[in-house]
Specification:
mainly beta; five-stranded mixed sheet; about 35% strand; globular
Length: about 300
């Protein structure tokens, strides 16, 4: 996966703050690990350049960001102008070509970098999340504190579903002054009628990664990823090398991926305090209005944050 630079979005009120080889696939050392995506988003940096982002996740002694309750952030990310047409992926030389296409949706056989709804220009696969100030951690609603749930990363044909996603892996325990597991895990599924080799890697220090070959109907649970706001975890399949997915790993539950209509929802966000919101898209595009963006949500309020995006 090529290296993308995330783009920071911090809001102007009241706009948006915001896999090693399998049989027939070759040896493990013949396929390089996924390229790592780095850096704190920065609208003024070019592709491939990294803006230092400090620690990247909550570490060491922290203080809780004051808040007086909970609210909701919702919004839509739309494409500004005429969006690019997704290019069809050439799978003809692959031994699983027929299986890759049999029953696959249109999204599974094209480059998924830009998936834009033709009716409302909503952009799919934008990650929207909150970022705590340096030295602070978010107060989390008790029922959201431990997310004992599964995130499913499926491979029914020859594309990862979803293409991008978020994972609430850890949270900051103020009593122990340390990160603890949330209980949420990633379940990788092979629903195809042929093998997939799933390889993943993030930063060497936090998420060095692993790889597993999954036979048809096989699954594997990833439960040891660490929160990292500088480097996402990238997934690939060596058997079907066009397959890519990206996961951002957080120490809080305040993140979302835009759906097929470009819509997102962040539930139970801290209220009564200024929040920094970040938006990321794998193509390092331009968001508008221009950064920085911040927002404050009133207790019990549902606040709408809308954003436009386009290629550079």
């Amino acid at each position: 996966m090529r290296r993308f630079q995330p783009l920071s979005v911090v809001l102007l009120l009241p706009a948006l703050l915001l896999l090693a080889g399998a049989p027939g696939c070759g040896k493990k050392d013949e396929t390089p690990p996924p390229k790592k995506q780095g850096g704190e988003p920065n609208a003024n940096k070019g592709k491939g350049e990294v803006e230092p982002a400090g620690k990247g996740a909550t570490e060491g002694d922290q203080t809780e960001l004051a808040s007086d309750g909970w609210g909701t952030l919702t919004g839509t990310v739309v494409y500004d102008g005429t969006p690019p047409e997704p290019k069809k992926i050439d799978m003809s030389s692959n031994k699983d070509n027929q299986g890759c296409h049999a029953g696959a949706s249109e999204k599974e056989v094209v480059d998924q970098t830009w998936l834009v709804n033709k009716d409302n220009k909503g952009v799919e696969n934008v990650i929207v999340f909150l970022k705590a100030p340096e030295g602070k951690f978010f107060k989390i609603k008790p029922e959201d504190l431990t997310a004992k749930s599964e995130i499913k990363l499926d491979q029914p044909h020859c594309a990862f579903r979803p293409h991008v996603f978020t994972h609430f892996a850890q949270y900051y325990d103020k009593e122990e002054q340390d990160l603890k597991r949330s209980g949420q895990v990633i379940k990788v599924i092979n629903d195809a009628k042929f093998n997939h080799n799933t390889k993943w890697a993030g930063s060497v220090a936090k998420n060095p990664g692993n790889d597993k070959t999954l036979t048809p109907n096989d699954t594997y649970v990833i439960k040891d990823l660490k929160a990292d706001l500088k480097t996402p975890v990238t997934f690939q399949c060596n058997i079907h090398p066009w397959m890519r997915a990206t996961c951002w790993v957080f120490d809080h539950p305040y993140s979302a991926r835009t759906d097929g209509d470009g819509k997102f929802t962040l539930k139970n966000v801290p209220a009564g305090v200024e929040l920094t919101v970040v938006a990321w898209h794998e193509a390092s595009p331009e968001f508008s209005p221009a950064a920085p963006w911040k927002v404050t949500v009133t207790k019990g309020e549902e606040k709408k944050l809308d954003l436009k995006v386009k290629t550079k």
